[in-house]
């Protein structure tokens, strides 16, 4: 697939689409408006959806009934991402390609300004899929959106003295967060994806997807809040 200079690849955390309280329609409404406004200026968006609370609820339910393998957990999570992706594709409707990308190696040429992706296979997360799609669409920067504004040295929700880490080299990031994927892993970026992004010399921005003014700055190349890994 030819590269697209104005393509922005977003790894959209499932916690933004479906937090534990349920589907966040207020977030989706504002996110849709932001994306369509920039799409109207000639940008293309490739948005890969995470599984969020839906994945965790199904994984927990199955685990309460029977012993689960890593593949079981992964496949439940993958199908949760696909459900979220279909929700997002429907929200964008005429602006989005009618098919969901579930294999990041599949070429899907389209003139539509929005392409929606979801989980691919066990052993990696949608972050990894996003890295592969960024490579395919010729994007050198990937924006990872979740419910954190920066990466911290410890969990800021339980540690008042947590310190912001504004940037990492890939070597530093991988040393701190390890190199193995586990379903439900709580890491700012999937370690399998990190290894691939490092190999591709990709720049990853980790930012709070709920801060729409900050997203505007990211999309327009202005100074923003977020951790940069490169």
Enumerate the spans where pLDDT stays under 50 for 5 or more consecutive residues.
none
Query: How are strands sequenced across the largest beta sheet?
Result: 3-2-1-4-8-9-7
CATH superfamily: Acetylglutamate kinase-like
What would you call the structural class?
A: alpha/beta
Number of domains: 1
The end-to-end distance, rounded to whole angstroms, is: 24 Å
**So what's the overall shape?**
globular
Task: Outline the structure in words.
- Helices cover 40% and strands 16% of the residues.
- Helix 3 (52-65) packs antiparallel against helix 4 (70-92) and helix 6 (170-177) packs antiparallel against helix 7 (191-199).
- It has one domain (7-229): 3-Layer(aba) Sandwich (Carbamate kinase), CATH 3.40.1160.10.
- It has 8 helices and 9 strands.
- The strands form 2 sheets. Strands 3-2-1-4-8-9-7 form a 7-stranded mixed sheet, with helices on both faces. A two-stranded antiparallel sheet has the order 5-6.
- The longest helix is centred in the middle third of the chain and has 23 residues, at 70-92.
Please provide a brief summary of the model.
This protein has helices spanning 14-17, 25-39, 52-65, 70-92, 126-136, 170-177, 191-199, 212-219; strands at 7-12, 44-49, 114-117, 141-146, 151-152, 164-165, 167-168, 203-208, 227-229.
List keywords for this structure.
Carbamate kinase; alpha/beta; 7-stranded mixed β-sheet; 8 helices; two-stranded antiparallel sheet
Per-chain topology:
Blueprint: E1 7-12, H1 14-17, H2 25-39, E2 44-49, H3 52-65, H4 70-92, E3 114-117, H5 126-136, E4 141-146, E5 151-152, E6 164-165, E7 167-168, H6 170-177, H7 191-199, E8 203-208, H8 212-219, E9 227-229
Parallel strand pairs: 1-2, 1-4, 2-3, 4-8, 7-9
Antiparallel strand pairs: 5-6, 8-9
């Amino acid at each position: 697939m030819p590269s697209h200079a104005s393509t922005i690849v977003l790894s959209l955390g499932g916690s933004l689409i479906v937090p534990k309280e349920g589907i966040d329609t207020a977030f989706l409404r504002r996110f849709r408006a932001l994306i369509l406004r920039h799409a109207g200026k000639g940008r293309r968006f490739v948005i890969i959806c995470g599984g969020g609370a839906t994945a965790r609820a199904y994984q927990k339910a199955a685990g309460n009934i029977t012993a689960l393998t890593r593949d079981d957990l992964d496949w439940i999570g993958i199908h949760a991402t696909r459900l979220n992706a279909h929700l997002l594709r429907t929200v964008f409707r005429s602006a989005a390609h009618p098919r969901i990308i579930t294999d990041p190696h599949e070429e899907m040429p389209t003139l539509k300004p929005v392409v929606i992706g979801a989980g691919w296979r066990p052993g990696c997360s949608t972050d990894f899929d996003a890295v592969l799609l960024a490579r395919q669409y010729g994007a050198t920067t990937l924006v990872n959106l979740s419910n954190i504004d920066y990466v911290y040295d410890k969990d800021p929700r339980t540690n008042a003295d947590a310190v912001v880490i504004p940037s990492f080299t890939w070597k530093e990031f991988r040393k701190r967060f390890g190199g193995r994927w586990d379903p439900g892993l709580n890491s700012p970026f999937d370690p399998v994806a990190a290894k691939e992004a490092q190999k591709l010399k990709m720049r990853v921005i980790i930012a709070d997807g709920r801060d729409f003014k900050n997203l505007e700055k990211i999309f327009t190349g202005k100074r923003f809040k977020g951790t940069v890994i490169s």
